[in-house]
Amino acid sequence: MNVRGTQAPALSERLGTVAHQVDVTRKPLRIDVVSVQSQVVYGSVGNAVAVPALRAHGLAVAAVPTVLLSNTPHYPTFHGGAVPLEWFSGYLSDLRARDALRQLRAVVIGYLGEPAQAATLATWLGQLRERLPDLRVFIDPVMGDVDSGVYVAPGMVEAYLRHLLPQADGITPNGFELAQLVPGSGTDLDGVIAAARRLLRGRTRWVVVTSAAPDAWEPDLMWLAVVTRDAVEVIRHPRLAADSKGTGDLFNADLAARLLAGTSLQDAVAQASGHVIEALRLTLRHRSGELLLPPSPGSSG
């Protein structure tokens, strides 16, 4: 019965009245990777590509959304927005409350909805590392690109620099995002290397810059710069006539999976880059408006 003037209780309050009994002898789900990034109803970005990419390598994944959108904003219409901070914080804390993270190996981070999520996520990561000192954190500091400019909430650059990048084992910005994190980094290779090395602080052992140093590209090729404290490697890959969204999300997830499997950094970058190129070729071949994922590694088709 509806009573005029009264507000229906929140879903959490309604469900909280239901009697629950948990069999403590049953084991929680095994989770290898927590993927923290955007979620769309339609499209191939954020968790929509990261989760299947990670699972294709046999990893058990928990997806934590930062925003919930109908689709990416480059379409004429879109709906949704950032997940409320209380919900976002609850998603993270409830994973611990379910005792589901005892075997956690990595956290993959992509698009965030607001700076406060970065602070909340950093606190959660710090608490996790007290129990899991070998936990690996892979961050794609999603902020924008040369064709679209900055498309994140104000304050995100500072939030990444202050809260999250110090937690990262590895970072995968594109060239545009590197310039946001290190202003004046330039677009030549020496500038990219110098800027990337400014991010090699604390735990961070490597920075892989996608779409790096465009001033130096050969015709029909693009560069990735793999930068560590004592080495630099440039990996060249074909430059395809494709503008599909989600390639950075796919690259970061596939790279993380290969590194967790024990592949060396340089080989993992080359293989993940090849996987993205395969996805783009498949997308172009089918004239798809959204990124298509190629068959899983080892799949017959």
Word description of this protein:
This protein is 35% helix and 18% strand. Helix 8 packs antiparallel against helix 9. The chain starts with 10 loop residues before the first helix and ends in a 16-residue tail after the last helix. Residues 1-8 have low confidence and may be disordered. By secondary structure, the chain is α/β, with parallel strands linked by helices. It contains nine helices and eleven strands. The radius of gyration is 20 Å and the shape is globular.
In short:
The chain has 301 residues and is an alpha/beta fold. The protein is built from nine helices and eleven strands.
Annotate the secondary structure layout:
Elements lengths: L10 H6 L16 E8 L6 H9 L5 E9 L10 E3 L2 H13 L8 E4 L5 H17 L4 E4 L4 E2 L3 E2 L5 H9 L5 E2 L3 H7 L7 H10 L7 E4 L11 E8 L3 E7 L8 H14 L4 H21 L16
Parallel strand pairs: 1-2, 1-4, 4-5, 5-8, 8-9
Antiparallel strand pairs: 2-3, 6-7, 9-10, 10-11
Helix pairs in contact: 2-8, 3-4, 4-5, 8-9
Features:
single chain; 301 residues; alpha/beta; nine-stranded mixed beta sheet; two-stranded antiparallel ribbon; 9 helices; globular; disordered N terminus
- Shape call: globular
Structural class: alpha/beta
* Average pLDDT score: 91
**Rg, please?**
20 Å
The number of E-state strands comes to 11
Query: Strand-and-helix sequence, N→C?
Result: HEHEEHEHEEEHEHHEEEHH
Biggest pleated-sheet summary: 9 strands, mixed
What percent strand? Answer: 15-25%
Low-confidence stretches: 1-8
Q: How is the largest sheet built, in terms of strand order?
A: 3-2-1-4-5-8-9-10-11
Number of helical stretches of at least 4 residues:
9
